[in-house]
Amino acid sequence: MRATKVAVLSNPTSGNNRKWQARFAARLVAYPQVRHHVTRTLAEAEALAPQLASDAWDVVVINGGDGTIAAALGMILAHWPEAEQPLVVVLPGGTANMTTGDIGMTTSHARAVRRFFRWLDQGAPMDGEIRTRHLMRVEGADDGQVRHGMFLGTGAVMQATKYAHSNVHSRGLGGEISLGLIMIRAVWGLIRRDPRFYQPTQVRMMLEGAKGARITRETAPMLILVASTLERLSLGIRPFWAPRGAAMGLTAIRGGAARFSRAILSLLRGRPNRHVIPENGYESFRADRIELYLDGDLNLDGELFATSGADTPLVITARGPVRFLCPR
CB neighbours of 3 closer than 8 A, spacing ≥ 6? Predict the structure, then answer.
């Protein structure tokens, strides 16, 4: 049997990689079936994508943060014929590493790298657990760029993100411990209606789900709005409880939602209690296409960007799926 052909894409500027990239690259030299590509910018990665596709790799390993993983997946879907797409392995080279946590690799960089090299030592077998996820394609930003991601949020998500940048990440803290601190602070701020966190965003929504079913929600203040193709977010959060049937989950909590302090913990577990009902301001959906009309900022896998205004839709469509390999 021929050796598994493995291409590794590394972003040395991602959180964990800033410290460990040189050591990781040095170890890869011992594996002749592996080709390692280091790209520092999206433009460098895009220039590389056609050649990678033509070389027909069996497995593409993405070593970077959530944003790097999403960008690389977008390029795979764009350049590989659907029937020839490689299996994808993701390594937690970033700061939050939400995607790797959901796909099956540990979010601990050290443990994930040990597992990865053990897999290479075994000949890179392709018989591990396969998980499929879709990718979100996002259009309608103020700069005209098309983006890809697996988690999108606005409302209090933006306030928590800004708090993280100024009070947590700026002090060198990362990983799930830092995410836990941010989550506790944000939830406490929302319960107390602290204006630093409690800033609802006016949003109108149009969703298309399974079998073309359409749902519309007129403009309303949204305290929290999150959409994702992942099943598990950071810290084990599972905030989507609508029945499956479409690729993306979307949960919206309105400003002024009733009994917030009694609802939030059950909501984060994806097991809504009796307070989590539409009449109280809590809704969850499944969709393959989402249109959001808002004037504000959003967080897409850690990247912040602005919409084109409330009159121009932010269009989110599900692409894929992508097959992820979880090495044993």
Answer: 33, 123, 124
Asked if 151 and 303 touch (Cβ cutoff 8 Å), the reply is no
Beta bridge partners of 226: 153, 251
Residues 318/149, Cβ–Cβ less than 8 Å = no
pLDDT band at 56 (very low <50, low <70, confident <90, very high): confident
Residue 42 to residue 38: CA distance in whole angstroms: 11
Selected residue with higher pLDDT from 169 and 220: 220
Cβ pair 39, 160 in contact under 8 A: no
Distance CA 281, CA 285 (A): 13
Query: Which amino acid type is present at position 89?
Result: V
Residue 1 has pLDDT above 60, yes or no: no
**Nearest one of 293, 317, 131, 110 to 218, comparing CA atoms:** 293
Nearest to 248 by CA among 174, 197, 319: 319
Spell out a b/e string for 152-164, using b for 16 or more CB atoms within 10 Å of the CB, else e.
bbbbbbbbbbebb
Q: Which residue has the higher pLDDT, 15 or 266?
A: 266
- Do residues 39 and 48 lie in contact, with contact meaning Cβ atoms separated by under 8 Å? yes
**SS3 of residue 144 by DSSP:** coil
Q: How far is residue 324's CA from residue 6's CA, in Å, rounded to a whole number?
A: 14
Q: Can you tell me the distance from the alpha carbon of 176 to that of 242, in angstroms, rounded to the nearest whole number?
A: 26
Task: State which H helix or E strand residue 17 sits in.
Answer: helix 17-28
Q: What is the pLDDT of residues 18-54, one digit of tens each?
A: 888 899 999 999 999 999 999 988 888 888 888 888 8
Element (H, E) at 132: strand 129-139
CA dihedral 251, 266, 176, 195 (to 10 degrees): 70
**Separation between Cα atoms, residue 11 and residue 18, nearest integer Å:** 9
Strand partners, 154: 225
Instruction: Look up residue 16 and give its two tokens.
Output: 């964990």
- pTM value surpassing 0.90: yes
